[in-house]
Design the sequence.
């Protein structure tokens, strides 16, 4: 049975990679920068993304977001407060988004056309394992880690951190009460993915958001 | 391909259920209470379990732990500080433990015999989705949720909370800086799993640990 599973898994990933390659080509042609945000449940992806969308809109950027969850549209409703078009994808038990879900939800999204869009954010299902194998056609994969989770997560979930293009440490306003060891966390991130961009942020206080927004503006050629 | 995947998945889960039923029978015959601890990465399972093992040992109980992670033996080393026998299971990319892994690691565990053991804790891989489908032969499945993660996690991950026998809220020492809404969290847990035992704890300050340890002592017939 193991051989059949490995073969099927390879087949699924191959099909996903083909779809993702098609998406990437469409995104590049349309000139939209696409980011895939991955983290554990509760890292604060939604609060971070809401603030990101709001600040980018304030700079005149055209932004949108797709947000994945097993159930509920809580996150889409929270993100919509930014004023950006947001669409919820419910996976109903599946532990990650895949390229087919992205393709399907872009197809009939009446509020959004890729043409004229500067940045599209995809907030993945909260999970540090399964999303790392599924390319969504993004140009930048962002691994998020909160100060409440412990400094050793990059070592324990190397698949995600190794495949990421940027790392975001969230909730740094809680660093002190959590006894967060910043140096250790940075060492662990760099051990798994040497030289990765690391942003230290708080969506609550706004700390570190300027550096993050400047990075996005530069990558999306907004300036 | 979808039909083949569903069939294969059913086959895998059926095989797992059979193995788990065998494990459950062995655990019951040996008189050992087995718990399966499931949560998001960074909820504080290991700190909570370390304190649990230490306090149970102080009461004269015979305890042991199996701990699952994709990579590293960090958690086994942390838990070993309690003085209890601990064994690390590395899943190398698999996002949950299964009954076969438990069977195999019990077989050649020289430090531990089920006979004479009061409680065996299984700390699952940090993941709120995949572990919910895999019975490990446990009698009590514990869903853990930290105050840093947000009150809506039970609604967003109903599979786990619905299949749990007890819920543990961790890191309550951080409730205030996190702006944790206790009533909302309790309402959400009870919406998904009405009447479940809920323990509100801090492994750091020891708050709520007495109630939890008394519950375990009663369930394991220690008193």
Sequence:
């Amino acid at each position: 049975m193991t051989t059949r599973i490995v073969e099927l898994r390879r087949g699924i990933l191959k099909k996903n990679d083909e779809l993702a390659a098609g998406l990437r080509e469409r995104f590049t042609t349309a000139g939209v920068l696409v980011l895939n945000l991955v983290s554990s449940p509760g890292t604060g992806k939604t609060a971070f993304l809401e603030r990101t969308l709001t600040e980018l809109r304030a700079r005149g950027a055209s932004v949108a977001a797709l947000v994945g969850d097993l159930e509920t549209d809580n996150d889409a409703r929270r993100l919509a407060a930014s004023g950006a078009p947001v669409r919820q994808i419910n996976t109903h038990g599946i532990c990650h988004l895949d390229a087919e879900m992205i393709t399907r939800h872009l197809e009939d999204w009446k509020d959004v056309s890729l043409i004229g869009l500067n940045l599209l954010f995809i907030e993945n299902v909260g999970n540090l394992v399964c999303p790392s194998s599924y390319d969504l056609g993004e140009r930048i994969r962002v691994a998020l880690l909160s100060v409440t989770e412990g400094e050793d997560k990059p070592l324990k979930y190397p698949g995600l951190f190794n495949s990421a293009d940027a790392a975001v440490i969230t909730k740094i306003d809680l660093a002190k009460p959590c006894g967060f060891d910043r140096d250790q966390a940075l060492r662990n991130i760099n051990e798994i993915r040497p030289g990765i961009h690391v942003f230290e942020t708080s969506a609550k206080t706004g700390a570190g958001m300027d550096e993050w927004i400047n990075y996005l503006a530069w990558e999306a050629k907004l300036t």
Q: What stands out?
A: Chain A has nine helices and seven strands. Residues 120 and 177 of chain A are 34 Å apart (CA to CA). The longest strand of chain A covers residues 63-69. Residues 2-219 of chain A form a domain with the Rossmann fold fold (CATH 3.40.50.300).
